[in-house]
Q: What sequence folds into this?
């Protein structure tokens, strides 16, 4: 149930609704909108009676939320969420590019790549310090030393940084250094990690699991929002199929559907989807064309020596070309989308 307050309702009037919801044994979550506040009812068992809320004079309407992912759903928030990361905006009418190596390997490697991607147009630097690797013998990342390098990159380039917390154990540490905490595909349904992310004050980049349905992905985001963190960025990174011509299959059709279902920003990782660098630029163009809010791309100044994911890492020149190509595509899509916005709400597939 979403209890929509009248325009100009006072905080006291909203509080009265919150208390009434809590007296029913439910959780009330106020959502600030552009013009009015709405209160989302969580943890109710069974349907609620809308007429109960209409007794409050400051309540405009009470609308049932039909989706199981209540806070994530457009039913509870019609307008796009925009996440602000140190002045860089993700979501809404913004196209945000995150780029960097798969893994932080050294200070010189990270800084070299950071300067290259910033020059080309990236706004956020990516790089793993804790790496989830298929083989226990593969490079596992530099750990806290990698996080310290990320902090230096931020200091020297001014770019916010995104890096992965691979488990509950390292979350506190990663949270101290990262501007955005990444939850990787393999952890999309690690519910204790999602709950921890829900308690974080940092934005969370939630990757879609390798075999996750859209409902499962959105429910994973709901765990984070239910915990109190509304700064969630979704990331489509390809799913496992029978294809062998690519590492995974980028599910482009997920983008317009997720944008219709949810107000959260959704970005695309073409690198882990493709697995091969020559597919990354075409997939990036396609991802922007279907309406994503940004990309996270692996780039390396010397991919042949990269300690992880060299074959899918773009050369600097390729990344610069990608950045030049996607801007005009985004502008065309934005122009066509604006015409279909009704009160800021995407009416059907963007
Ligand atoms: C990554 O982005 O570094 C990564 C490991 O991605 P994913 O979780 O999508 O495989
Ligand atoms: Mn990688």
A:
């Amino acid at each position: 149930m979403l209890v929509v307050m009248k325009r100009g309702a006072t905080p006291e009037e909203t509080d009265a609704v919150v208390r009434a919801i809590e007296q029913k044994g439910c959780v009330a979550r106020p959502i600030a909108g552009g013009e009015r506040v709405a209160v989302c009812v969580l943890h109710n068992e069974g349907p609620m009676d809308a007429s109960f809320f209409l007794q409050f004079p400051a309540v405009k309407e009470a609308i049932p939320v039909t989706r199981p992912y209540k806070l994530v759903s457009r039913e509870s928030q019609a307008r796009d969420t925009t996440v602000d990361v140190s002045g860089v905006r993700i979501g809404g009418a913004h196209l945000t590019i995150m780029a960097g190596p798969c893994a932080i390997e050294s200070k010189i490697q990270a800084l070299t790549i950071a300067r290259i991607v910033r020059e080309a147009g990236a706004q956020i630097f990516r790089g793993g310090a804790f790496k989830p690797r298929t083989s226990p013998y593969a490079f596992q990342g530099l750990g806290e030393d990698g996080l310290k390098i990320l902090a230096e990159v931020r200091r020297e380039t001014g770019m916010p940084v995104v890096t992965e917390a691979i488990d509950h154990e390292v979350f506190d540490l990663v949270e101290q250094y990262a501007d955005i905490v990444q939850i990787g595909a393999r952890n999309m349904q690690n519910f204790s990690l999602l709950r921890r992310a829900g308690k974080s004050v940092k934005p969370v980049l939630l990757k879609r699991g390798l075999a996750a349905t859209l409902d499962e992905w959105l429910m994973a985001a709901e765990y984070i929002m239910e915990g109190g963190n509304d700064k969630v960025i979704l990331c489509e990174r390809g799913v496992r199929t029978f294809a062998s011509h690519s590492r995974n299959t980028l599910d482009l059709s997920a983008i317009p559907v997720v944008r219709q279902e949810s107000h959260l920003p959704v970005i695309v990782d073409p690198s882990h989807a493709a697995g091969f660098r020559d597919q990354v630029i075409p997939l990036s163009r396609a991802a922007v064309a279907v309406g994503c809010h940004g990309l996270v791309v692996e780039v390396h100044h010397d991919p042949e020596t990269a300690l992880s994911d060299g074959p899918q890492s773009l050369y600097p020149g390729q990344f610069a070309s990608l950045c030049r190509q996607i801007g005009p595509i985004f502008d065309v899509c934005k122009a066509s989308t604006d015409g279909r916005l009704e009160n800021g709400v995407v009416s059907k597939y963007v």
Q: What stands out?
A: The two ends are 26 Å apart (CA to CA).
